[in-house]
Write a structure and sequence with these properties.
By secondary structure, the chain is mainly beta. It contains 9 helices and 48 strands. This is Iron complex outermembrane recepter protein.
């Protein structure tokens, strides 16, 4: 809890305006008419005041402002326990975690449900954020157990915008200038010449005369544009309808990257028989085009010799400067990063349609009983085409030990179809002070996937054995479930929720196929008791408690690992008499694979003060996961393979979530609101079948992370560095922790972890006068550490004085701090503090009201994204994807935006 004490010290800085709360309250006899807020829950809706589970509801007023191009960007930093890591790569998917996830190597992604349709994976890049009305984030098992095997890592429910009775037209557009916020500091050409002359004088003849900043050469200032238009109204005067189109174009920072997204969305809400029969029909089509810049060029831009020019008129490799071995006249060493980008094209076309039909029928003879039917599908089509210029460094290589200018021309395609249907009956009845809601249903879901890859078609005739069209059609994954929920309420003060789901997955054998999941939650509305009724200070107080069990069955490509399968050879035969039989080899399998299960506990408090001018939620939670699914090395002859999926151990996650909404000032000409959230999370491995699994490979057989009992997943496992009297690390000198007189792997120890102890978010919203608005969003992460592989790989003299391939390479300036001769990758010196405070966005807008009519408005705004990062970490950004190992990332752009929102 040491880091949580830090939170308590930092939190006042986030809430410094809290003292500005306007304490004047209305007369206690004044009654305000309020519309009870309704929140999405699993397979239904519920009044927010009646929730028994831990759920965060976010609507358009809560969303991040400014140039938001992705759906997850609307809510990044807006909910306690929700962590979103967005990449700088245009069009890439974010990593989303709710309370840290609950698995080790199986999927930790939350389930994403859009308008009642569970989508395949967390694929939000194809959804237009302008179409989203609200999010509900389900965190505890009492809320997510109704989704059984898919609710283990939390659930995110998305509702898209629907039609209205009145005709409304909206136009939203913005243009963003994307700039490089920071570069990794490496030596300039002049500095590098000095270092080479000092430490590797024998290499001085290889130096050039240029001062090339390779990062400047591969990055650019680019532009993003987004135009969205929507029409909402009543079709034929009776059917609420909405239609929208959007086009977004993001060039990205790398000189060859680009992402374009075009979407169309339609929503129809017809009703019949005096609203006894209602339909909600939604459909979204998107087309994404992505030219993926070769991101390996980012690593090479850090390493390539800065004394060399980009171009070389005498180079045989398309005129780009490259290292060539004198003895063989073949390319060696690090490739020219500009050539890597300019001479390779990696294009993907991604088409997606997902839609859902929801029917809600309230029986005429029994209005308390409703039949709800959902049917939907999610279809994805992906095709890729990669080409490399033969007359480039990367187009020249060996085929069957013969070097030549071959180039590349390869194709890939993938087709995914996810079909879903569920039917449920809901019964709601009030008996005096008792409220009853019962729901039961059945769900069917089927995942179908077919993919293929061509290999390099240019080599078909030269190397037919290793280049062929490779179709991959795996069996469908089928999920079926029976589920139910019971909500009981008494006197609007005492609430009880019981839910249950029996899930079946085709991933497991018949003996392990079905799992039972469920949860129980209770709540007490203390503020409704007589001793608090009418209290002017405490306006809301509710105590919640829950326990539930969820499951996990997604272990990636291993769809039917319990099957006994064989590979039949087309070239090897065994003679039996006069007959030749094809030889078959048994494939690996695991008949004992079963559900990963999580038992989760939650204790929560919802509170409000000063007529809910201050509102908040506080949750304490713990999750115990057993039968962890992981892909691990297997024993000799075990399951007939070297590596495969197994149930290997136990994991525990626990933490605290706090969320606050503060209406600090509410005046006619000035309002000031704050939304603050803070989360403390700790994850530990409790049990492993084999304790000590190496992770975090950094080359040459070295590993700097581990799966080990008593530590967090991917905890750093390194040697303890010894320092001299000047604080400089002594090369190759480590602490003999076990005292045996020699330094071996037994002396490695756990030094820090990649997961943050504490995450925080703060949003400030203000209106000034009747026209101006202001928004500012901050995020913080405390206690997360990063392994600096960029410096570990490059910051040593051996990187410069490479006698093997007769090349020289640049290095991060961290070399000044170490003066290492060789790489010392296992040292804890390279485990760096990655804590940060980020100012994500600042937005200022001005609204012209009634500018061409009473119902028309025009808002003009300016915004900045990725404004400021305060951190001790020296590289580009401590917020990285790769489980805490930084070997270079696509930088997140600093963006400056001008936009309009017009409504008619």
């Amino acid at each position: 809890m040491k880091n949580f004490t830090t939170v308590l010290k930092i939190a006042p800085a986030f809430l410094l305006a809290g003292s500005m709360i306007h304490a004047q309250t209305q007369d206690s006899t004044t009654k305000e008419k309020k519309i009870e807020e309704v929140v999405l829950i699993g397979y239904g809706k519920q009044k927010k005041s009646d929730l028994t589970g831990s759920i965060t509801a976010l609507s358009t007023a809560d969303f991040n402002k400014g140039a938001v191009t992705t759906a997850e960007g609307l809510i990044n930093g807006r909910s306690a326990g929700l962590t979103i890591t967005q990449s700088g790569t245009p069009g890439s998917e974010a990593t989303i975690r709710i309370r840290g996830g609950s698995s080790l190597n199986a999927s930790n992604d939350p389930l994403l449900v859009v308008d009642g349709l569970p989508l395949d994976g967390v694929s939000l890049s194809t959804i237009n954020p302008n179409d989203i009305e609200s999010f509900s984030i389900l965190k505890d098992a009492a809320s997510t157990a109704i989704y059984g095997s898919r609710g283990s890592n939390g659930v995110i429910l998305i509702t898209t915008k629907k039609g209205s009775k009145k005709l409304r037209v909206s136009l939203n557009a913005f243009t963003t200038v994307n700039t490089l916020a920071k570069k990794i500091k490496v030596y300039s050409g002049d500095e590098f010449r000095s270092i080479v002359n000092q430490y590797a004088p024998g290499k001085a003849n290889l130096l050039g005369t240029a001062n090339t900043d390779w990062q400047d050469e591969i990055f650019r200032t680019s532009v993003t544009s987004d135009i969205n238009a929507s029409v909402s109204g009543s079709l034929f005067g009776k059917v609420p309808a909405r239609f929208s189109v959007d086009n977004m174009d993001n060039s990205g920072l790398l000189i060859t990257s680009r992402f374009r997204r075009t979407t169309a969305n339609v929503a129809l809400s017809p009703s019949f028989f005096d609203d006894h029969l209602k339909f909600n029909i939604t459909g979204t089509y998107s087309y994404n085009f992505q030219n993926k810049g070769n991101e390996d060029a980012i690593k090479n831009a850090i390493s390539y010799d800065p004394t060399q020019s980009v171009l070389d008129a005498n180079s045989p490799y398309g005129g780009y400067r490259e290292w060539i071995a004198a003895a063989t006249n073949r390319p060696v060493g690090v490739s020219n990063p500009v050539s890597m980008l300019r001479n390779k094209s990696d294009v993907q076309n991604f088409k997606r349609f997902f839609g859902n039909i929801n029917m809600d029928y309230k029986f005429h003879f029994l209005p308390d009983l409703r039949l709800i039917v959902n049917a939907g599908l999610d279809s994805k089509e992906l095709d890729g085409h990669v080409t490399t210029n033969p007359y480039s460094r990367n187009g020249y290589y060996s085929v069957k030990n013969v070097f030549g200018f071959y180039g590349e021309d390869s194709y890939s395609d993938e087709s995914i179809l996810n079909k879903n249907a569920n039917v449920q009956l809901n019964y709601t009845k009030t008996f005096g002070k008792f409220n009853l809601e019962a729901m039961g249903g059945y769900e069917y879901q089927n995942y179908h996937k077919v993919s293929s890859a061509s290999g390099n078609t240019l080599l078909y005739s030269l190397d037919p054995e290793n280049n062929f069209y490779n179709p991959d059609s795996k069996p469908d994954v089928n999920l079926q479930a029976f589920f139910g929920r019971l909500n009981l309420g008494f006197a609007s003060k005492y609430l009880l929720t019981i839910n249950y789901r029996r899930d079946g997955s085709s991933r497991f054998s018949k003996d392990n196929r079905w799992g039972d999941f469920g949860g129980v939650a209770a709540a007490w509305k203390i503020s409704e008791e007589n001793f608090l009724n009418g209290n002017n200070t405490i306006s809301d107080l509710k105590l919640r408690a829950s326990v539930g069990k969820t499951g996990q069955q997604d272990i990636g490509v291993y769809r039917y690992d319990y099957f006994k399968t064989y590979n039949v050879s087309s070239t090897l035969y065994y003679q039996f008499g006069n007959t030749f039989y094809e030889i078959a080899k048994a494939n690996g399998y695991n008949q004992n694979l079963k559900w990963e299960e999580s038992l989760k506990y939650n204790l929560g408090l919802d509170f409000g003060f000063l007529r809910n001018r201050i509102k908040g939620t506080l949750d304490f939670y713990m999750a115990d996961t057993k039968d962890l699914l992981s892909i691990v090395p297997e024993g000799p002859l075990e399951n007939l393979r070297i590596i495969g999926p197994k149930n290997i151990g136990k994991l525990q996650s626990k933490g605290i979530d706090l969320g606050l909404d503060v209406k600090a000032i509410q005046k006619e000409n000035f309002t000031l609101n704050f939304n603050y959230n803070v989360s403390y999370n700790k994850i530990d491995i409790k049990q492993l079948e084999v304790n000590g699994i190496d992770k975090g490979g950094v080359g040459l057989g070295g590993f700097v992370q581990t799966f080990r009992e008593g530590y967090s997943p991917y905890a750093f496992w390194v040697y303890q560095q010894i320092y001299d009297s000047n604080g400089r690390p002594v090369e190759g000198a480590y602490v003999d922790r076990n005292g045996d007189g020699t330094i071996t792997s037994a002396d490695k120890y756990n030094y820090k972890k990649p997961q943050a102890d504490v995450t925080m978010g703060l949003m400030t919203n203000a209106t000034i006068g009747k026209n101006w608005d202001f928004s500012m969003g901050w995020r913080a992460s405390i206690g997360n550490y990063v392994y600096d592989q960029i410096s570990a790989d490059r910051s040593h003299v051996g990187n410069i004085n490479n006698t093997v391939d007769n090349t020289i390479n640049n290095a991060p300036v961290d070399f000044n701090s170490t003066h290492f001769i060789t790489a010392n990758k296992m040292s804890d010196y390279y485990v760096k503090n990655g804590s940060f405070l980020k100012l994500d966005n600042v937005t200022v807008g001005y609204t012209f009201k009634n500018f061409i009519g009473n119902n028309a408005s025009l808002r003009v705004y300016g915004a900045a994204q990725n404004v400021l990062i305060i951190t001790k970490y020296k590289n580009l950004d401590p917020e990285i994807f790769n489980n805490g190992v930084d070997n270079s990332i696509y930088p997140r752009a600093r963006m400056f935006t001008l936009g309009i929102n017009a409504n008619f």
